[in-house]
Design goal:
Elements: H1 26-38, H2 45-61
């Protein structure tokens, strides 16, 4: 007999396998926060990390 899932709790917001946890050193976190503070419109840490990753990948794409 299959167990029935109860409709309790928050529904998952991401698909399995799409979440990545990254541990930052205190100096890296301070540098990230300083960069966020310099932005015209501050963003969250995850948004900042995604923006930095996208910028870095676009630079690497240009290096053929």
């Amino acid at each position: 007999m299959a167990l029935r899932r109860r409709g309790r709790g928050k529904a998952p917001t991401t698909k399995p396998g799409l979440r990545v946890a990254v541990h930052l050193q205190p100096d890296q976190l301070a540098a990230l926060d300083a960069w966020i503070a310099k932005l015209p419109k501050p963003v969250s840490r995850p948004q900042a990390i995604r923006a930095i990753l996208a910028a870095g990948l676009s630079v690497l794409d240009g290096e053929d």
